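Support reply, case 0932

Customer input (verbatim):
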Amino acid sequence: MHKILIVEDDAVIAKAIKNHMGTWGWEGECVTDFEQVMSLFISFNPQLVLLDISLPFYNGYHWCSEIRKVSKVPIIFISSAADNMNIVMAINMGGDDFIAKPFDLSVLTAKVQAMLRRTYDFAGQTDLLEHRGAILNTSDTSLTYHDSKVELSKNDYKILKMLLENKGKVVGREAIMARLWETDSYIDENTLTVNMTRLRKKLETAGLAGFIVTKKGIGYMVT
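Our regenerated output:
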């Protein structure tokens, strides 16, 4: 089932879209806190976003830009501000399509179907893991924090992914070593320490000091 995030401040329109999406077997989720759009985007992890331009606090262009920092998920703008300037702006900001209000729900459905088919028939779905504002994109192994993109090595990525998948839990050193080297051969524990030190320095440089905590004699966890 594909998930669709609806960023529309008219509750009547948002509910109508959500209900209609449900009849096609898609799971819709409506934003209600328009200061925390990205929080819902990360937790819901949609396969498509329907985004209005005129919104409380920040406009749709802002949220499109924020989403594009961490994800290539398709974005369809839905707005009554359908003059050429706004349409061009929406596409230039990273939008994939534009539907002018008022629109027929059957037209919206056709656009959504086409976009989902083009995006996911030939590619896997994007998965995001988030903690303290740091976002790990498992489709391209990138880490983003605010406006910074952290360059990750293969081992950096494996360590972070394992820790973020187990937020709130201590991950044992042996388990991390097994994931990193995937071998029954003996690996010196100092090798893991060196990898962890290198990763921590990268995180600190990006403003994520103390992101990974050592539980002495046991392992590591994100805090």
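We compared this against your earlier run and they match. Two observations from our side: Helices lie at 11-23, 37-44, 60-68, 84-92, 105-120, 154-165, 173-181, 189-205. The radius of gyration is 20 Å. Please reopen the case if you see a mismatch on your end.
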